[in-house]
Amino acid sequence: MKSLIMTLVILATPIAASAQTPSSDAPVRQTVQAFYAAFNSHGFNHAADFTTDDWNHINPYGGRTHGRAEVLKELHEVHSTFLNGVSDNIEKLDVRFAGKDAAVATVLSRMSTFTSPDGVRHVNEEHIRTFILAKRGTRWLIMQDQNTVVMPPPTH
């Protein structure tokens, strides 16, 4: 019985030692919050501080943009037109680690009212966005994000 207990303790030790503590998600949260601060100020001039060069963005309409330069071009375009003055505020932020250098952050947020290019008025719309972050040196950087509109359940 003693040897069984010792074996279990030895096997559990590497898992406990490598587990990330809740406080270790603070830098990941700060990176995601930097994205939302840039969104709400409509200025992504410091995107290199929180994104990778090969950042991929999937927008709520299913479009995919590759590379930071192209994503920024798209963001500047939409933020100077139909998203001008629109805010997107975090309501809930969860972080999970896929390894010591990879994290997934899921954000539930609420956007202020805007009218999309197709003429649809979006009021108090809820979004869920998934961020994949990579640790590069000491910094956590967004390498991909996908934004999805949360659709209310159908009423009968």
Walk me through the topology.
Elements: H1 2-18, H2 26-41, E1 51-58, E2 64-66, H3 68-79, E3 88-99, E4 102-111, E5 114-115, E6 121-122, E7 125-136, E8 139-149
Parallel strand pairs: 1-8
Antiparallel strand pairs: 1-2, 3-4, 4-7, 5-6, 7-8
Protein architecture, described:
Helices cover 29% and strands 38% of the residues. The chain has a single domain, classed as Nuclear Transport Factor 2, Chain: A, CATH 3.10.450.50. The strands form two sheets. It has a six-stranded mixed β-sheet with strand order 2-1-8-7-4-3. A two-stranded antiparallel sheet has the order 5-6. It has 156 residues and is of the alpha+beta class. The longest helix is centred in the N-terminal third of the chain and has 17 residues, at 2-18. It has helices at 2-18, 26-41, 68-79, and strands spanning 51-58, 64-66, 88-99, 102-111, 114-115, 121-122, 125-136, 139-149. Residues 4-19 have low confidence and may be disordered. It is globular and about 45 Å long. The protein has three helices and eight strands. The relative contact order is 0.17.
The share of residues in helices is 25-40%
- Overall outline: globular
- Total number of helical segments? 3
Could you tell me how far the N terminus lies from the C terminus, measured between alpha carbons in angstroms?
A: 60 Å
Please give the CATH architecture: Roll
Task: Give Rg in angstroms.
Answer: 19 Å
Q: Main beta sheet, described?
A: 6 strands, mixed
**How many runs of DSSP E, i.e. beta strands?**
8
